[in-house]
Amino acid sequence: MVKTGNVLAVVGGQFGSEGKGVIVARIADWYDVHVRTGGANAGHSFWHDNQKWVSQMIPVGWINPQAKLVLGRGAMLDLAVLDREIAAIRATYGDNFLDGRLLIDMDAFLVEEQHHLLEGGVRGELHQRIGSTGEGIGAARVARLQRDGQYIRRIKEIQVDEMLLKYPNVWAAATIVSDTPGYLSSVRKAGKNILLEGTQGCGLSLIHGFWPYVTSADTNAAQLAVDAGIPPQHVNQVLLVCRTYPIRVAGNSGPLWKELSWETMSERVGREVQEKTTVTKKVRRIGEWDSNLFRRAVTLNAPTALALTFVDYLSPAALGKSDYLDMDRIVTDFVRDIEFLADCPVALLGTGPNAEGAWQTVWRGYNMSGELTW
Ligand code: GTP
Ligand code: MG
Fold first, then answer.
1. What CA–CA distance (Å, rounded) separates 188 from 146?
2. pLDDT in tens, 306-350
């Protein structure tokens, strides 16, 4: 009998921008099927083949040429964004690079112009009040809850003509299928490994975050299983990705423990640092490591492994390093402390850009189940 595959949920432990994109890119080859749910309000940035990429819709796992990519039933699809992303990938890797690999559940819902207009982007009321991206995902979810087809459509309701005209790359590269949960169940049984790519972070959860400064859905591992249609007991690996200094988006975006200025950060880090959000391009807010927030993320997700990013902020000497043995006590003590709190190993560390500007990750030999493999 074939051993069933692993199902890994990758979750952000704070308020998003933990570097899930960089981390998923690092482990993309270990997983045969990459699933993305959620909406285009999250942007996952990473480097691949000396090029910077940002994925708002397509799973980061597209970089693994063998991997299947699934936009699951719980996804809120922005086809304009997806079309742009597919176009960029095809332009670089050839028109056939995604052929037969990208599956979209026909019951996934669409975020469309009327939803964008309801929220109004970064000029809208929702952005002013709670720092939301205002992209319309919340409005689309409200429409879905109304259970009335005049306010929202599923992808299966788009006519071929409209698809061809407005989203030619989606049309060319994607297959709209009827039963992604059934597909995921069968590949898992066949021994394939599945990665559920989470978006945003635990502190932004509608249910478990700091309401009202939250996103319009839960953001934790259980929700990823729900959105993909995977039974919860099949999720046997959870990777919690945390930054050494949590951030929140710009503006009135809610509580942030011991907030710091970018001047203070630049002094600590020993170089000029300032971060802007991937989607809205505004200067982020940053704060000290918050153990209570971390404990909450551990409670809600029971990680089997951790990824710690922005280690270069914790210890400037770690910048661009690729070997754990080169890390100083500041880093190793910190790693030991959070391993103790979470009762699982830090499998990966992010050390910022290397000399070529690409993001550097350090793998410590643990797999995503937390087992040492060498
Ligand atoms: P969201 O779902 O939108 O929260 O995405 P995310 O967790 O993938 O994070 P995102 O890519 O939006 O933001 C992380 C930013 O930090 C990106 O600009 C990365 O290039 C950068 N980054 C990732 N890891 C590190 C790290 O270890 N050190 C430094 N200095 N930067 C990093
Ligand atoms: Mg982002």
1. 34
2. 999 999 999 999 999 999 999 999 999 999 999 999 999 999 999
Cβ neighbours of residue 261 under 8 Å, at least 6 residues apart? Answer: none
Mean pLDDT of 254-283: 92
Residue 7, Cβ density class (10 Å: 0-12 exposed, 13-18 middle, ≥19 buried): buried
Distance, CA of 310 to CA of 110 (rounded, Å): 34
CA 237/CA 345 separation, integer angstroms: 13
β strands within the chain, DSSP E:
7-12, 33-38, 44-48, 51-55, 68-77, 102-105, 109-110, 174-177, 194-197, 237-243, 247-248, 259-260, 285-287, 305-309, 346-353, 359-363
pLDDT for 133: 87
Ligand lying closest to the C-alpha of residue 60: 1
Q: Are 72 and 35 in contact (CB under 8 A)?
A: yes
Nearest-CA residue for ligand 1 atom 3 is: 42
Determine whether the shortest distance from the Cβ of 352 to ligand 1 is under 6 A. yes
Integer-rounded Cα Rg, in Å, for the chain is: 20
Which ligand sits closest to the CA of 42?
Answer: 1
pLDDT surpassing 90 at residue 146: yes
Q: Sign of the CA dihedral 351, 354, 359, 363?
A: negative
Q: Residue 351: helix, strand or coil by DSSP?
A: strand
**Rounded distance between C-alpha atoms, residue 133 and residue 130, angstroms:** 9
